């Protein structure tokens, strides 16, 4: 608390010193480590004015070179010009209001909506994001963006045409890349086919019978958040 002395002229003869109390009002900021820190000089509204999130951002998966939207909606009757987004690394400042200094980041939505659109997504975008209204009390709304690298298409090896009845067909399926790695599986027609997995390879052994004629043997690579890839061969 500080005192400011102001000289007020009451009459031509008498001067009275009036002490006026000046309140040092705390505001908050986020440091480079993402921690809320107090600083002087900017007013925060009273305890009755807390941030009212209509929609908070939620954890989201996105694929490299795709797009991702983190949703944040504030009660429209509140001050919203200072809605800010912070993101990786270490909660760096990303946007304020509708403005963005980042070429791949933009703010979308209608009244009260400050949705963060990232396009195209890059691996370095993965991490924790915060939507925060600086002038209002309350905790920032946080969400984790997980960036996925799509796996390569599965490739089947070990077959040749024609396949004779009574022979044993040993097939191998591989898929490379991907974060997280894909899961490989076999199917014969509409039924699953048991396989043996070793790192990024899965093998299947089939004893060919007449019933297998014309059926498709398929290897599928599935990955959370990504489209499913498939490679198949047909038993002639």
From TrEMBL:
Keywords: Disulfide bond, Glycoprotein, Immunoglobulin domain, Membrane, Signal. It is a single-pass type I membrane protein. Residues 38-146, 154-236 form the Ig-like domain. It comes from the Eukaryota. GO terms for biological process: cell-cell adhesion. Residues 1-27 form the signal peptide. It is found in: Membrane. GO terms for molecular function: cell adhesion molecule binding. One of its GO terms (cellular component) is cell-cell junction. InterPro entries: Cell_adhesion_signaling, Ig-like_dom, Ig-like_dom_sf, Ig-like_fold, Ig_sub. Transmembrane segments: none annotated. This is Cell adhesion molecule 3-like. It comes from Branchiostoma belcheri (Amphioxus). The gene is LOC109481948.
């Amino acid at each position: 608390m500080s005192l400011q002395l102001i000289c007020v002229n009451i009459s031509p003869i008498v001067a009275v010193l009036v002490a006026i109390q000046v309140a040092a009002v705390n505001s908050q900021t986020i440091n480079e480590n993402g921690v809320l820190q107090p600083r002087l000089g900017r007013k925060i509204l009273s305890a009755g004015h807390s941030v009212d999130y209509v929609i908070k951002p939620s954890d989201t998966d996105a694929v490299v070179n795709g797009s991702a939207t983190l949703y944040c909606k504030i009660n429209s009757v509140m001050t919203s010009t200072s809605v800010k987004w912070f993101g990786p690394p270490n909660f760096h400042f990303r946007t304020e209001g509708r403005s963005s200094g980042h070429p791949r980041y933009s703010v979308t939505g209608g009244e009260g909506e400050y949705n963060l659109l990232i396009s195209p997504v890059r691996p370095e975008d993965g991490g924790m994001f915060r939507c925060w209204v600086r002038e209002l009390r309350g905790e920032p709304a946080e969400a984790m963006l997980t960036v996925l690298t799509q796996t390569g298409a599965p490739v089947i090896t070990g077959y040749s045409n024609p396949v004779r009845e009574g022979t044993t067909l040993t097939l191998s399926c591989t898929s490379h890349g991907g974060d997280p790695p894909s899961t490989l599986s076999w199917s014969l027609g509409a039924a699953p086919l048991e396989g043996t997995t070793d790192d990024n390879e899965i093998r299947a052994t089939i004893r060919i019978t007449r019933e297998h004629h014309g059926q498709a043997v398929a290897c599928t690579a599935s990955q959370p958040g990504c489209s499913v890839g498939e490679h198949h061969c047909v038993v002639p």
